[in-house]
Amino acid sequence: MIFFSAHGVPLAYVEEAGDPYKAEMEECIDLIMEELEKRRITNAYTLAYQSRVGPVEWLKPYTDETIIELGQKGVKRLLAVPISFVSEHIETLEEIDVEYKELALESGIEKWGRVPALGCEPTFISDLADAVIESLPYVGAMAVSNLEARQSLVPLGSVEELLAAYDSQRRELPPLVTMWEWGWTKSAETWNGRAAMLAVLVLLVLEVTTGEGFLHQWGVLTLFR
Fold first, then answer.
1. Which of 119, 124, 104 has the alpha carbon at shortest distance from 64?
2. Which of 18, 107, 114, 197 is the most exposed place for a label (fewest CB within 10 A)?
């Protein structure tokens, strides 16, 4: 049996906030199974959700409970697929490979396997690049902050090169939108802080050299004479 295990989310995210995550996971699995059927692979499959924490209800069925149920139903061979994980980390290497494997063997499952995460698989990376290109018309409205300035996520001069590399249809993109922010930005905060530090330093120098000022009036510097 092919066992798709996705990262869970609180049920309220889906039912109350309208998060499409659950529907997207189910659609993704349907597409995978359709492709497998074309290759004459017709294994049974199921989907469950792992990594829940806290007292609230998360998406069901839960991975650990499902493994136990499959063992009780007589399933002997299970292939785990970390469907929503794009890289190897603690939830695949520890939670799936160690904890769920032990639970499966204890539940009567004799053969346990696990499909690796996508990682740097070239096809996956290419698809990510295509997704970025498709989103370019909206990137200009998303600015990133650094200490000195706010810049676009995508250098404007690189758009044509990116299209040439990844977009075979050469779709024309609308001009990028630039977002200007006024007021208290990180850049302004940095320069204001530097100006304040310089002003304090100047006041201290004047206090020490002239012997006059607020610190002398308050008796602070006189204590160190």
1. 104
2. 18
Map tokens 């990028």 to a residue: 176
> pTM of whole model > 0.85?
no
Cα distances from 182 to residues 118, 147, 185, 186, 191, in angstroms, run 41, 16, 7, 11, 15
Q: Which pair of tokens denotes residue 32? A: 């995978």
Cβ–Cβ under 8 Å, residues 50 and 95: yes
Domains of the chain by residue range: 2-114, 121-174, 183-224
For CA atoms 204, 206, 209, 211, give the dihedral sign: negative
Least confident of 36-50, 75-89, 192-206, 209-223: 209-223
The CATH code of domain 2-114 reads 3.40.50.1400
